[in-house]
Amino acid sequence: MQNVLWMMLELAANLIESFFCIDFIVKAFDGKFRFLKAKSVYLIGILSFAASITILNRITEYEGFLGITYVCVLFIFSLIFLRGKVLKKLFISLLILLCLISAAAVSGNILSAAFGSDQSLLYKEGTVERFIYMVVGIALIVYVLAIVLRFIKGRKESLSAKEWTLILSVLGISFLIFNVVHLIILSGENSRNVRNLLMLVELGIIFINILCLYMTSRLNNARRREEQLILEQKHSEYSRQYAQTVKEQYEQTRRLRHDMKQYSAAMLALIRSGKTEAAEKLAEEQTDVLSKIETVINVDNDFLNAILNSKLSFARSKDIDVLCSIENDLSGIENTDLCNLMGNLLDNAVSAAEKCEPDSRLIEVNISSANSKLIIIIKNSICNSVLEENPKLKSTKQDTSHHGFGVKTIRSVAEKYNGTVDFFEEGLMFICRVELQREETIEK
Known about the structure:
Blueprint: H1 2-28, H2 38-59, H3 68-81, H4 86-115, H5 128-152, H6 161-187, H7 192-272, H8 276-292, H9 302-317, E1 321-326, H10 335-353, E2 362-370, E3 373-381, H11 386-389, H12 406-416, E4 420-426, E5 429-437, H13 439-443
Parallel strand pairs: 1-2
Antiparallel strand pairs: 2-3, 3-5, 4-5
Helix pairs in contact: 1-2, 1-4, 1-5, 2-3, 3-4, 4-5, 4-6, 4-7, 6-7, 7-8, 7-9, 7-10, 9-10, 10-12
């Protein structure tokens, strides 16, 4: 009867521990499930993780290097059921394992010192020490996971491959060293002073991991702030550039109105005096002048007119054919955001199309609405597949510190309006499709 009660107690402890571990990994990815509902995902995760804990407890008193099984179970679970980056899933799985073994080791060291007994008693069923160890261990795990979750939940990680490699390497090496040290402690073949020293080593390993995570996070935040400042600087430059273009076009319109008055007066005088040939010549000259003042596109938005005309006129000066289909209702999107978005899209399109042969240079601009969404599609000709050569669309310019923000700006504007950005190719045409949710519908 006592054995059955202990089995039920052990199973309950494993289920509780599994629940908090699965809850941690789900919340770390903001509860974004790939399929199935939350209850089903939680149930599958808890049962599978509890089963792995129960099996390992039957095989060995201390999991040691077999604890990598937990990483595999959590990693596979997150791959199947949760949305997110693969490297982050591996990181979270390793982090949970490190939290588990750290909590178990710290609670074991404290209780062993308090009871003045060998730690092996903590792993034997039917003892008071084992029961206290289970309660303290679970409480410590819950506390540690809650603190770590506060630190990582809701953070939009943009770690580079080097930063992920550093973090995962430190976690992996720490796991190996920690297990070796703890197995030496459990062997019971060392003096009390040596065991105390090894316990300090374990605490040192935990501290190093905390420090590494903290420093990496600080460096990452600093890099993100620097990128944000550069993006804001680029936005300001676009705004100043387009405001200047609007001003120049306004001045050009004023001059044109003044010239038209003089032209009309001269034409009227020539016609009244019967000098029709001179009047025809003046009309031809004025027609040539007007043809040079070309408006590529005109929508009910002066600010956007400026960017479209300047960018597409520049494209035509590079012998790039331009096709436009733009509706006039562009409401629900701030002018600055719309101009930053279109400016970057057209800059990228012109830069790519310019590299093609003159007879195959083409840019297509299509802006339309679908329900509450504004859909922007920019197509441009390319010489070779861009996505095969540069799938991440990184800047190919030498000064990468001040370039390569075009795609980031496009994505940031789309994110602001709860939209999406898709890059794909059809033959030798590169296509960017952006969907933006109009602000009126977001507020509702």
